[in-house]
Amino acid sequence: xxxxxxxxxxxxxxxxxxxxSCAASGRTFxxxxxxxxxxxxxxxxxxxxxxSWSGGSTYYxxxxxxxxxxxxxxAKNTVYLQMNSLKPEDTxxxxxxxxxxxxxxxxxxxxRMQEYDYxxxxxxxxxxx
Length: 129
What we know:
Elements: E1 3-7, E2 10-13, E3 18-25, E4 32-39, E5 46-51, E6 58-60, E7 68-73, E8 78-83, E9 92-100, E10 118-119, E11 123-128
Parallel strand pairs: 2-11
Antiparallel strand pairs: 1-3, 3-8, 4-5, 4-9, 5-6, 7-8, 9-10, 9-11
């Protein structure tokens, strides 16, 4: 079992920045790749970014590429999402998720939501225009 707790959400003006954090506990953090997803109001949950177990590989949704950066600190059991140049359409509840990695040599970060094993409770990000 992995417990995930997101923090860092809030209200920001368009063009501003926020950094989300996701603290993990319960299992060896470096055995998991991590992802960030979001659910805008009235819409389905969607992929934002993912990072490999080592942090050496990342993958982004086209909508956030160049504006958001995912990173992780395995010593602190934490994954981050730095969000710059925020837009009103980035308004959503942001969730982090953990994907157990069994074959590190073959693993690549991915957006497939159904393959993530553990989820946090989410943190609200609101971008005003």
